[in-house]
Amino acid sequence: MMNLIIKNEIEYIKKFSEAIESENYIKFTDESIPDMYSHNFILLQRNLSDDEIKKVVTAQIETYKRENKNYLNVEFNYELNEDTYIDERANQINYIYMTIDTGKYHLLKENSYCQIKEAITEEILKDGALIDIEVNNDDEDDFAIRRCNRKQEVYRHRNGVRFFVCYNDNMPVGMCELFIGDKIAKIEEFDVLKKYQRKGIGTAIIRHLLKICNDAGISRAYVVTSIDDSAKEMYQKCGFKEVGYKKDLYYQFDKFDI
Question: Which of 31, 58, 146, 212 stands 20 to 30 A from 153 (CA)?
Fold first, then answer.
């Protein structure tokens, strides 16, 4: 299962970023928004030894510093052993992969107040952008707007990343991405405005996307969520099960003498 998920993850990121593959890692770069670490990172391949991990990370730190980059993000799409080398200078972020049988969509409750629309018009895209900026605008700079604009650029190209907006009494209240790959689908960018949470709207969105996948012959879907994310509980209630782990090592160069 994890091999299928990782393959799909790589194809999903390629919709936003350029990918350069080497023997030990894949380097993803999105020049249109270089400060978005989820589009600009190094993905380490499986089964690297401690020495190999150390060598790759050290070399990339030096490369990024020469290029005047502000940070380096390194991802491991697998669970690390406790004795595996981890640089303590890096900020560690832990995620889990959760998956579900799409045929279970019929077990989830519908919400009669919800209307879920795919963003195939500028009007729906604009409604989704308003939600995106509101739920992600926790910084003083304009990053949330630039991030939203970058995402919307990909949605407009309709290259496999589909975007949906949920309306409650004609008001846009939720959003979600769906990427259907080879035999598996990814649910991403899932958000409901705070004042509309715990009203069954999130469940209705998940149900809608799972039905789309099931109707398309895709039997499994997955999400990636932080171990501490409150959304984890909602996914569990919908029937998602943990199947794997991901760790990010985030190096902020101006905070350490790296």
Answer: 212
